[in-house]
Amino acid sequence: MSDDFEIAIRVRGLTVRFGAVTVLENLDLDVRRGEILGFVGPSGAGKSVLLRTIVGLVPHASGTIEVLGRNLETCSEAERRGIEQRWGILFQNGALFSSLTVAQNIEVPLREHTTLSRKTIDELSALKIGLVGLAPDSADKYPSQLSGGMKKRAGLARALALDPEILFLDEPTAGLDPIGAAAFDQLILSLQWNLHLTVFMVTHDLDSLYTICDRIAVLGNKRVVAIGTTDELLRHDDPWIREYFHGPRGRAAMHAAE
Questions:
Q1: Which runs of E-coded beta strand occur in the chain?
Q2: Measured at the alpha carbon of residue 154, what is the angle toward residues 111 and 253, in degrees to the nearest 5?
């Protein structure tokens, strides 16, 4: 099996600037097919910026981004649309349309990108609702009627609407209580296993890193300073990495995962 097939996302020499401020500079990153990669770093370092740059929501000054073997800048517009349909995104707040029900939110990408019948779209929407652990009666509720955890699950159902190969998660457990966060971690792990997903997860949640991530990439000084398993990062000599993983919360998360 070639290295190209093994890599779902390849970023090389990526530089992102906002005006005179350089947020990411000459950043390299590989995300392997079928893994859950946790992406961590100090607050404001640019973790979410990288995610949004990969999916095309933030422009970059230089560098290349390849997803599923295709360079996103040199492929045709039709190829780009095809690749975009092979990934799903869950933003931190769920990013649901407030004027649409849960079912209608899930149906948006199905209506936009497929020619399926109304009946089939309704069936797929109900299937995705069940897939993320929401009750059937959630379908007719509006986002304002949902708890924080339910909003995230509804957003996840929409992200899975087109049966993507790659799932981007931006702080998926932020704002959830420990029980809700643990349940969401297990949901992600189950979906990744059963749907053979590649998961790119921006997070601060140490419990998530220990519980479900295959590898962890650390952002620092505008680039990836380390990548590896939790065991490998525990042995790393970078000061921020040592403080992050060996501090009180890091030790608690490590013991909870044992």
A1: 7-18, 21-32, 36-40, 62-67, 70-71, 87-90, 166-170, 198-202, 215-220, 223-228
A2: 140
**Backbone dihedral region for residue 166 (phi beyond 0: left; psi -120 to 50: alpha; all else: beta):** beta
State the pTM of this model: 0.92
**Pairing between β-strand 198-202 and β-strand 166-170 as defined by DSSP bridges:** parallel
pLDDT tens digits along 75-102: 999 999 999 999 999 987 768 999 999 9
Contact (Cβ atoms closer than 8 angstroms) between residue 171 and residue 94 = no
Each residue of 162-210: pLDDT tens digit?
A: 999 999 999 999 999 999 999 999 999 999 999 999 999 999 899 999 9
- Please state, as a whole number, how many other Cβ atoms lie within 10 Å of the Cβ of residue 154: 27
Tally of CA atoms within 13 A in the half-sphere of 30 that contains its CB? 9
Q: Are 35 and 199 in contact (CB under 8 A)?
A: yes
